[in-house]
Every structure is written in structure tokens, then in C-alpha cells.
Design goal:
Elements: E1 2-7, E2 10-18, E3 24-31, E4 34-42, E5 48-54, E6 68-73, E7 80-86
Antiparallel strand pairs: 1-2, 2-3, 3-4, 4-5, 5-6, 6-7
């Protein structure tokens, strides 16, 4: 679905997308063709996948760019597996964080469904 609002000559849009099973897959807002405000995505089972927010765009240096923390969630919709933090302007502010840890061999961010080995390099996981 796509919603359109006009506000003092500015165009504001919101969209919501759905998975084939009917569950919501994502939602976001745009102002004048650039992301603004919350941006949320969902796993096919309906649980939260990621969330973050784009700043209101006023300055040309960061129009529609990511700013602040963006969180990546496991399929349970609660467990954060990755945090990416952006500076004003959209570049990464610091290295990505992996609250569940990383693979000691390749540095891949750990996920709940890994089991006993890293899917990227095959290293055994404690």
C-alpha cells in the first residue's frame, strides 16, 4: 500500500509491504523522495526483523540518510543479533556490534540458528 500526503508543497509518502502469506513485511515513510522517520521490517512469521529511523531531512548533507542505531533481529522478533550505528550523513559511526558474539575465525556475527559451526567458514562454535 502506498499513501500520499501533501504538506506545504512537500510530498510525504508512507508504504507498507506484505509477505505472500499476508503478514506485513515492512513499512517506511518518505518525504520528497527520501526516507524519513521509522523504517521497520518483519520476518515472514510476523516477528520484528529490523528497525531504525531516518532523521527528518533539513540539511543537504544528510537528506534521507540513515542516522543513529539500526537493529537487526532474529526470527523471534526480540533477540538483537546486530547493531549498525550511522553518523549524520549516513556513514558508519563505529564498527558493527554483534551482541551474540562473533565467529573467532572469520568474525561473522553470530546468529541463534548457527548450531555448532559457523555457516561462513565452517569453524566449530563453543
Amino acid at each position: 500500500m502506498d499513501y500520499l500526503l501533501r504538506e506545504r508543497g512537500k510530498t510525504k509518502r508512507s508504504w507498507i509491504n506484505y509477505h505472500k502469506n499476508g503478514n506485513k513485511s515492512g513499512e517506511a515513510s518518505f518525504r520528497d523522495g527520501k526516507y524519513e522517520g521509522p523504517c521497520i521490517s518483519y520476518h515472514e512469521n510476523g516477528n520484528l526483523r529490523s528497525r531504525g529511523a531516518y532523521p527528518k531531512h533539513e540539511g543537504k548533507s544528510y537528506d534521507g540518510k540513515k542516522e543513529g542505531p539500526f537493529y537487526g533481529y532474529e526470527e523471534d522478533g526480540e533477540t538483537v543479533w546486530m547493531i549498525v550505528t550511522y553518523k549524520k550523513g549516513g556513514s558508519r559511526a563505529k564498527p558493527d556490534e554483534y551482541p551474540l558474539g562473533t565467529c573467532d575465525v572469520c568474525g561473522e556475527g553470530r546468529r541463534l540458528n548457527w548450531g555448532n559451526s559457523c555457516p561462513k567458514c565452517g569453524a566449530e562454535i563453543d
